[in-house]
Amino acid sequence: MPPPPFVQVEQVSMRYGGLEGTLALQAADLAVARGEFVAVVGPSGCGKSTLMRLVTGLWPATAGRVTVDGRPVSGPVAIAGMAFQNPTLLPWRSILDNVMLPLEVVEPHRRQLRRERARYEAEARELLAQVGLAGFEQKYPWQLSGGMQQRASLCRALIHRPALLMLDEPFGALDIFTREDLWAVLQEVWMARRPTVILVTHDLREAAYLADRVLVMSARPGRIIAEREVGFQRPRRLEDTYAPEFQALVHELRDHIAAAREEGPDAARREAADVR
Ligand SMILES: Nc1ncnc2c1ncn2[C@@H]1O[C@H](COP(=O)(O)OP(=O)(O)OP(=O)(O)O)[C@@H](O)[C@H]1O
């Protein structure tokens, strides 16, 4: 029998702002295996970030069930690391202290931090070196470029060795060259540590480069309407993204999203028919 999914979303709906509010998700299902790298793509405003908030327990679902590692999600999930489009580093803390922040919050690290500070600090420095930020530990966020801040934010998401890494457009604000550099960094970190990853992105090349499987969402109210395995060998290289098979996959995903956008009016009708 196959192991149960590490992340499971079953028939989840989410309406913001009470009965008359926006229905962001409707009867959405999602299953992600332990250690899998999944990308979620879809039309703008279809509910991708909402799905992320429900899986990490930042919002409760209006209906349905979310489990992570076999446990129902009823509040913030401690085993999750998160990074968003905006690096959200604290300006008054050094890069090293920003990276170490989750250790001050998440148990059991919180309890162990005072006693084992040197070990944790060495881990943070190692992680920073892995993403190319050796030597910048004592700098402040405002002294770093946007790409460097995003690298640091990735380290902060990883420092407590989360089993689940939730990335919501982490490279969305970066120029294409920096973004491509960070794809390689993320792939390397994932291959070394194998967390389960859910990545929300608007960039279909990014999804195809990084993910084992790409999930396509419908227009709002969102649900998963298509999925595509990505079989390219790892480690994937930037040159691979120019191969015909890779480009064909990106086109296929684009067609799915175009169809999902067309479906918009139907989605609106579905919403009207279901007042959940
Ligand atoms: N806190 C909120 N209160 C009310 N409505 C919200 C809230 N957050 C999101 N929404 C609405 O829910 C819908 C889904 O939003 P969400 O941010 O999940 O979509 P998204 O797919 O991540 O969007 P984008 O592609 O633009 O990043 C949108 O119509 C949005 O306006």
TrEMBL record:
Q: Name the domain of life.
A: Bacteria
Instruction: Give the UniProt keywords, A-Z.
Output: ATP-binding, Nucleotide-binding, Transport
- Asked if Membrane is a keyword of the record, the answer is no
The record's section on SMART domains has: AAA
Q: Name one GO molecular function term.
A: ATP binding
Pfam families reported for this sequence: ABC_tran (PF00005)
* Transmembrane parts of this sequence: none
Entry keyword annotation includes Nucleotide-binding: yes
Task: Describe the location of the ABC transporter domain by residue ranges.
Answer: 7-244
The UniProt similarity line reads: Belongs to the ABC transporter superfamily.
Name under which the protein is recorded: ABC transporter ATP-binding protein
